[in-house]
Amino acid sequence: FNETEFAMEFPKEATVVSVDCTADFAKVNEFIQNLPEELADVAASISFAAGVFLFAVIAAIVACICCCFGACRRNRHSSPEATYMAVPSHIVKAQPVHSTTVYGAQQTEKEMV
Hints:
The chain is α+β, with helices and mostly antiparallel strands. The chain contains one helix and two strands; from the N terminus they run αββ. The longest helix is centred in the middle third of the chain and has 48 residues, at 22-69.
């Protein structure tokens, strides 16, 4: 038990040998009785780890679908042109803002008041 070995020398003229293994037998019985409880803890840990792994895989697949196939692009604009919202002049008292946007070979200028 517990990977132990005992060197036992028996007399060469002996025809019958008696060995007392009750202590080892008691240890084995105790181990077998406690085995379901120990295995339940290990099984619960493995189940939890498998659940977390499965959740991570599903989340990665959903993220790929959203990013690659455009399922999450509902709020994005189809053109690369930026959109601006006018602010009423009675809220902000400032000079007009000039913006320049460069997309590839196109360059556009806008004036915002």
